[in-house]
Write a structure and sequence with these properties.
Layout: H1 3-6, E1 9-11, H2 13-19, E2 21-24, E3 31-35, H3 42-50, E4 55-59, H4 61-73, E5 79-81
Parallel strand pairs: 1-5, 3-4
Antiparallel strand pairs: 2-3
């Protein structure tokens, strides 16, 4: 059974574009594509948002942009996830 097939998810467009991370479709396991030059610390945020371990695949900027376009132009029915919720008890200040 494929982890990706069991729980199809995708970051929001804004998160994916800003952080340089995208959930790659059609992989045997849940795989996050990482744009060259992206802050690797963003993978920690991605791990928290996904809620499970995942594989990582490096992408050159053109490949990342292509994957981003494909993921968000086809109206995929994937569950979009955004940043993980703030820790319990943390007050947000606007």
């Amino acid at each position: 059974m494929s982890t990706h097939a069991a729980s199809p998810r995708q970051f929001t467009y804004a998160f994916a574009k800003d952080k340089g991370l995208i959930v790659l479709p059609d992989r045997d396991t849940l795989t996050v594509g990482v744009r060259a030059g992206a802050d690797v610390m963003s993978l920690i945020e991605a791990r928290r948002a996904l809620g499970c371990a995942h594989a990582v695949e490096s992408l050159d900027p053109a490949s990342f942009d292509r994957a981003l376009t494909i993921a968000f132009s086809q109206g995929r029915s994937a569950q979009q996830i955004s940043k993980p919720p703030s820790p319990a008890g943390a007050a947000s200040k606007a």
